[in-house]
Amino acid sequence: MTYHLPPPASTSSLVAWRAGLISGLGAPGLALIASFIGFGALARELGLSLPQSMLSTVTIWAVPGQMALAEMQALEADFFAIVVAVTLINARFLPMTLPLFAYLGSHRGGIARKASLYGLGQFVALTFWTGSMRVMPLLPMAQRMPWLYGFGLSCIGVSIVATGVGYAAASALPVALKLALVFLNPLFFLLVFSADVKGAGNIAAILAGAAIGLAVHPFWPDWSLMAGGVVGDSFAFVIGEKMGARRSKPAEPDSREP
Q1: Residues 29-33: what's their mean pLDDT?
Q2: For the CA atoms of the chain, what is the radius of gyration?
Q3: How confident is the model over 197-239, as pLDDT tens digits?
Q4: Is residue 133 domain-shared with residue 30, that is, in the same domain?
Q5: Taking Cα atoms as reference points, which of 22, 59, 63 lies closest to residue 155?
Q6: For the residues of 146-209, what is the DSSP string, one character each?
Q7: CA-to-CA distance for 119 and 137, rounded, in angstroms?
Q8: In which domain, by residue range, is 26 found?
Q9: Same domain, 121 and 180
Q10: Which terminus of the chain, N or C, has fewer Cβ atoms within 10 Å?
Q11: If pLDDT is split at 50, 70 and 90, which confidence band does 240 have?
């Protein structure tokens, strides 16, 4: 997948911002539109109002967290419990934020610099992070922040509009299609990263995790994903360590007589 990049020699923040904006309106934007149409339709069925649905996209901007909000509110859960649940679901973005921010150089600076970093952190989600990690190494340092803001604004912008469209079209969409649309964005994420899967360790992690997850799910569905991830990652770590040790092992000297 290609993303729109500014000319390498350009020093204009506006040019870099526009390039990021265009990138978000391509394939990433299409995947987000599909997912948030599905969310908007489901949110209406679960009793959220249109302003609540669109505001959740702005503030949470992650369909799993938004679905938790909608379902728990439909069950009349306590407000504090909803906040804790959504926070825990979105906590997975913290380790994604750290490597992304490493591409932005020194984080020291005044209030404006810190505010821009906090604002950028609000954009971090699967689609945004995937595109950003692929593009950041290709951009000069001066172009990275503007590109990220353009990309993030376009991604979250199309998501807000798609939420409204899905909400309005809720009665016209069958339930199966709504659920399929919601899961389209994780599928997009998987397909993008599959192009970067290299090495026996990474392949072993995917295959082992998928096998364990499928095997555990019939007996322990609530923890099958966790089991697949832990076992898959552990298996990949062992494979990687063994291969690394084999590569670093010095060659034995030739004992044959001359």
Answers
A1: 87
A2: 22
A3: 565 666 777 777 888 888 888 888 878 878 887 877 787 777 7
A4: yes
A5: 22
A6: HHHHHHHHHHHHHHHHHHHHHHHTGGGS-HHHHHHHHTHHHHHHHHHHHTT--SHHHHHHHHHH
A7: 21
A8: 13-195
A9: yes
A10: C
A11: low
Which of 122-136, 166-180, 201-215 has the highest mean predicted lDDT (pLDDT)? 122-136
User: Is 121 in the same domain as 216?
Assistant: no
pLDDT, tens digit, 9 for 90 and up, residues 100-127: 888 987 666 678 778 888 889 889 988 8
∠ CA 134-100-1 to the nearest 5 degrees?
Answer: 15
The residue that leads in pLDDT, 198 or 36, is 36
pLDDT band at 27 (very low <50, low <70, confident <90, very high): confident
Angle at which helix 141-168 crosses helix 111-121, to 10 degrees, equals 40
In terms of domains, do 155 and 180 share one? yes
Residue 254 lies in a domain: no
Picking from 5, 3, 47, 44, the residue whose alpha carbon sits closest to that of residue 167 is 44
Q: Residue 8 carries which DSSP code?
A: T
* CA pair distance 49, 57, nearest whole angstrom: 13
How many helices and strands (H and E) does the chain possess?
Answer: 13, 0
Based on the fold, state whether residues 77 and 185 are members of the same structural domain.
yes
Residue whose token pair is 């909400």: 167
What are the residues whose beta carbons fall under 8 Å from the beta carbon of 67, sequence distance 6 or more?
Answer: 39, 42, 182
Residue recorded with tokens 């649309």: 181
What number is the average pLDDT over the span 170-191?
73
Structure tokens at 239: 């494979």
pLDDT, the chain, mean: 83
Structure tokens at 47: 């009793």
